[in-house]
Design goal:
The structure is a homohexamer. Chain A has four helices and seven strands; from the N terminus they run E-E-E-H-H-H-E-E-H-E-E. Chain A is α+β, with helices and mostly antiparallel strands. Chain A has a single domain, classed as Alpha-Beta Plaits (2-Layer Sandwich). In chain A, the strands form two sheets. Chain A has a five-stranded antiparallel β-sheet, covered by helices on one side. In chain A, strand 1 and strand 2 (11-12) form a beta hairpin. In chain A, helix 2 runs antiparallel to helix 4 (111-129). The relative contact order of chain A is 0.27. Chains A, B, C, D, E, F: Its EC number is 4.6.1.17. Chains A, B, C, D, E, F: It is an enzyme of class 4 (lyase). Chains A, B, C, D, E, F: Keywords: Lyase, Molybdenum cofactor biosynthesis.
């Protein structure tokens, strides 16, 4: 507890999980993009019809989950059994809200996969709205829930 | 202005930049990881010596900048002429602060590259501290500055 | 003319283009997915509303254009200045029709990028319809047009 | 049956396969490249000896099978236990014929891996012959056979 | 024994391992970078403090292990359960010495993953020292040990 | 001279090359695989006919050159204008010898691309011969020549 498990004698490594059991593991994460009035207006106006910007962000998030172990140096490459990403325009709060769920049956969890999916979906929202306004901000990228493995279930309080 | 330039007739595409001039373009972005007391303690204790977790995050950020066009569906693949990432433990504020600068000589800017580098560096900090505490949060992923191209210089107010 | 330019003394290599001039080059390609009645019905029924399967295929095509030089062994890695992919359900002909346009300013052309985008968009259509019917077929993956470079403009007769 | 299983409430996602059993699954697919007389002549003349263009296409197909889940947005990343690709010049029919077989032991099938391998092998044949003739056409990219999993064995009629 | 198992009828393929059992497999490999006096001096002088060049090489090695099946055409994509890379400056011998250990639970071994990690760590050392001296040389890239699978344990004599 | 140019204040970064001129740059590198008698015999016996193991290694080298900036953390992503890899069985010396040439027109050189191509071609030779003998060794991975850029021409003495 409280230890930097990715380090051994002060050197980074990919932790040995070969003694762990492959069990079903789930992680959920979220992120939000805080919009400026210009960006909110552009999204409202342009976001109807097919090819909606939020669908682009959703797909980017799904595909990013599969790239997690390429991006995060000490992450294990894992088979993923489910990736779902929701991207919703919360007009009242002037935010785009992203929620991701990732599942695997593996020796280690998928928290980073869920967080990576949420981050990349949020970056994609930024990319599509940056011509309207550069002042957007990504916030609240955080874990909501995880289950499976020895450390059991965790839920944001 | 205010338009979703990535869309044409409601359909996403990678915008045509072949008429633009290749000029030097710079972008700076930041991100922060809000630490819990357990995570701050683990970082303080484990972060001395070589192989420091912040160096892992820094390298992850640099390498992620090069993967931006693979992650963000409508981003142009660009040559990058500089990527610098700084990762600093702000103990007083209980935060890890990340700043990135990316440069190119190209037809389009590198805002997304700087933001992607900041996001992935922040995710890597999360990954290395998650054994200490799962309640960390990534916030303030945002552009600080951009210059070059027709739209000129922009700076966060 | 008529030679295998990728080969020298019977050995494959990536052709030297350092003497060529960087000029604007365009390529257009198409592909079609021949549907079974079950697949056409599933597409008709499920393809309304946001998140339309054809948008998924369109984005997959755009992203694949950027991966061309990773997939085709002797292709040069190129900056791309435009990628547009259109995916249309031609109900009368029981086909999904895909058209792609790719642009660059480079020493060599983007025919392979346009063809790769068309192929991967078609494969993605297949993937989304395969639960309805496995008997789909991808056909007519072919170049429609290219311009730029020493060999000039070519158009399918 | 006949449903778009990749969609839930009109939104794309990577289907949950965590309840399925990991069983041996096989898929076979094919593709053909229709040659022009110039391309057929170039292949005949240049294709003797080591480094044969067909070997380049074969390797490209094998390597592409491993990239399937990066290319097709909603595909699961899978371990592959076999990939074999055959590329044959059918001079009489003026075609290059490609056949692929992919095997895995996993919760979902490898149809897309076999089809992706066939497509990329065909694109590589195109790339190597395009200096001789741009009028080539890829056709008959289709599944031949699949076995394993709940839906059992399927064979093209 | 003594056969080219990657070839069948003279054609390369990814060998079928679906009949093999998934067992724990370990491989260890090493590499060395022979330094010139200028490079040794630059490393000695610049290698103190955080961000040490050897840490960059170590991380590059870890991340490269995960890319093995993308680099080596006939390698199977495998889940990895451990990757550890050590990079040490042997001043007396004027060498940087690299040792890697990779573990998996799979149907085939991880020799190539360990060798790839060692090679890329060595290339990264070269990259960081090449401004000081271009005359460096990578040598002794070789397997030290492997265990698991039908062929059992092997150790360099 | 003699400085670690990839580091600034003890921290790694991707060096700023935006002030440099894009000029034609060439690099040549080599590598050798030292064979055991068993491996030499397997290669002699199996290496005739199409699909020769040396062609697989050659293609792996060409494709790896394009992946250099993904593998070496501080390398700039560059367009490549030529990649040629030669792989020769030197039976008398019981070695497979690899030579690579890479060209670009860019702000920085392609030494790492040539060395990466040579290393991965050598690793691929190892992979194909490892069933015959695990005692192979990769050696003499080194730069032979570079030209272009401010530091001018360098040749191994």
């Amino acid at each position: 507890m409280g230890k930097l498990t990715h380090f051994e004698d002060g050197k980074p490594r990919m932790v040995d999980v070969s003694d762990k059991r492959a069990t079903v593991r789930v992680a959920r994460a979220e992120a939000a993009v805080k919009l400026t009035p210009e960006a909110a207006a552009a999204l409202k106006e342009g976001g109807v019809g097919k090819g909606d910007p939020l669908v682009v962000a959703q797909l980017a998030g799904i595909m990013a989950a599969k790239k997690t172990s390429e991006l995060i140096p000490l992450c294990h490459p894992l088979p993923l059994s489910k990736v779902a990403v929701e991207v919703v325009f919360d007009e009242a709060a002037a935010r785009v809200r992203i929620t991701c769920e990732v599942k695997t049956k593996a020796e280690t969890g998928v928290e980073m996969e869920a967080l990576t999916a949420a981050s990349v979906a949020a970056l994609t929202v930024y990319d599509m709205l940056k011509a309207a306004s550069k002042g957007l901000e990504i916030e609240q990228v955080r874990l909501l829930y995880k289950s499976g493995g020895k450390s059991g279930t965790w839920e944001r309080g």
